[in-house]
Amino acid sequence: MKAHLRWLAPLGVVVAASVAGHYMGLGVGLLTLSGGVLGGVIWLMWASLQGLAGDVPLTLDEALSLGAPSTEEEQKRSVLRALKDLEYERAVGKINDADYAILAEHYRNEAKRLLRAVDADLGPERERAEQILADRLAAEGFEPAPAGAEPAASEPGADAGEDGPDAPAAKSPTSDAVP
Q: N or C, which end of the chain has less CB nearby within 10 Å?
């Protein structure tokens, strides 16, 4: 029953837009329809954010913080931007090669440090996501791969034909055709 009720809102918006458009003009009808679509998109985004939190209710502050970059991510962006600007200044001749080498090494080391920090911050979330995936696969009847296992690869030579990658390619029936 609840699944059928969720279709009443879009249907109500279409009916309201049709009525408004009939009595007040096309512009008002389209404005009503676009307002309903915007409201629907906001509702879908909010519902998806609440799904990320699981069974725990998600507050507005928590939802906003999900999209906010961390301090390390912001610093990483600024360091990468500085490297790009440094490349540009070298290309146009504003900086000599010796100064470029010193500054580029400094910025690259800082970027590496920040990338490691961002990766360390995401470690617990990555483990949580992998656990959720393993639980869902188990619920669906699939056997999760052991931790650290590589994805199943095809047999050697399967992509290049049965004779291996060094074997000459077989002639296709259209290979003799004139272009």
A: C
